[in-house]
Amino acid sequence: MPDFWIIGPIAWDLALYVDHLPASGHFVQAVESTERPGGTGANVATALSEAGARVHMVGYVGADAAGQRMTTALTAAGVNADHVQVLNGRTSSVVLLIEPNGERTIIGIHPDLLHDIAIPAAAVGPGDIVYFAAWRDVFTPAAQAMAAAGALVTSVPPGTVPTMRYLIGSRNDFTVIPKDTTAIVTEGAKGVTVHSADDAYHFPAISADVVDATGAGDAFAAGLLWAIGREQPLVEGVQLGLAWAAATVQVKSSVPIETPPWTSEQKPQA
Questions:
Q1: Which pLDDT belongs to residue 177?
Q2: CB within 8 A of 1, min separation 6: which ones?
Q3: 73-82, 127-136, 171-180: which has the minimum mean pLDDT?
Q4: The pLDDT of residue 262 is above 60
Q5: Which domains does the chain possess?
Q6: HSE (CB half, 13 Å, CA atoms) of 259?
Q7: Would you say 56 and 80 are in contact if contact means Cβ atoms under 8 Å apart?
Q8: Is 87 helix (H, G, I), strand (E, B) or coil?
Q9: ∠ at Cα 106 (211, 217), nearest 5°?
C-alpha cells in the first residue's frame, strides 16, 4: 500500500439531534446532543488509518482545547499528525442539526484558515496518494509539484484539472462535469455516477437504515481511495466506497475512531 496524504479540514463537531428544523424565529428542542471529532479531512484520514493504511494528515488546529482533542484523536487512530499545524485562531468547529431521517444541516462557527496551511509537497513521494478533502486555489502549485513527483493526486471539486487524476464530490459540488479527468459524483440515496472521457456509469446506493448521514461522503471517498491504493479496478473502488458509506450512516458518528462501522467483509485486509 502507498502512503496517503490527506489535506483538509479538522473540526470539532457539536451534533444536535432534533425532531425537525426550526422555522425562522421558532424554537426546537434537541432530543440528544454530543460533541465529537469531525472535519472532512480528519474523517477520511481516520477511516483509511483504521483500515490499516499509512496516513499523513495535513491541516490545522488552533491552540485551544478542541485542537488538542483533535490531535489526540487522530494520533489514537494511527494517523501521522506531524503535519497538523497549530495556527493563530480557533480550531474549526461546526454545529450539526440532524433530523430523524438522518439528514444533517451544517453550521460553521469559526473563520476558515485552511488557505494558510503549508503543504509539505517535498515529502510526498512517487506512488503516494494525495487527497484534497477541501480545495483552495492557493493549493495549485503544491498539487502540481506532487503530481510531477509521481504522486497520484485527487481532490474534491473544483481541484486543478488536469493535475487531478480523479475529482470526487457530491452533485452539488460540481458546477460542470470536466471532460479531461474522471469525475466521481455522489448523489446521496441515488448512488454514484462515474464520468470519464468516453462515458458515464451509474452505481446504485446500498440500502441502509440511516440514522446520521454525517461523514457518508467521507467514508465513500476513503473506501474508494483504499481500493485505488490496492490497484483495484475503479468499479471495485466505487462499490467499496458505497459499502463504507452505507455502514457509516447507520451509526451516530461524524468519523469512526474507536469502532469503525464497517464489517470485516466490507473492509479488505491490508
A1: 87
A2: 52, 53, 54, 229, 230, 270
A3: 171-180
A4: no
A5: 3-23+31-248 (3.40.1190.20)
A6: 6
A7: yes
A8: strand
A9: 60
CA distance readout (Å), 129 to 36, 62, 126, 154, 178: 27, 27, 9, 8, 21
- For the stretch 122-169, pLDDT in tens is 999 999 999 999 999 999 999 999 999 999 999 999 998 888 999 999
Residue with cell 490545522: 60
Cell of 134: 477541501
Place of cell 466505487: 238
Alpha-carbon dihedral 92, 93, 94, 100, rounded to 10 degrees: 130
Digit-coded pLDDT (tens) for 15-69: 999 999 999 999 999 999 999 999 999 999 999 999 899 999 999 999 999 999 9
Judge contact between 168 and 179, C-beta under 8 A: no
| Residue 93 CA: distances (Å) to CA of 116, 202, 210, 219 | 17, 34, 24, 20
89/95 Cα distance (integer angstroms): 18
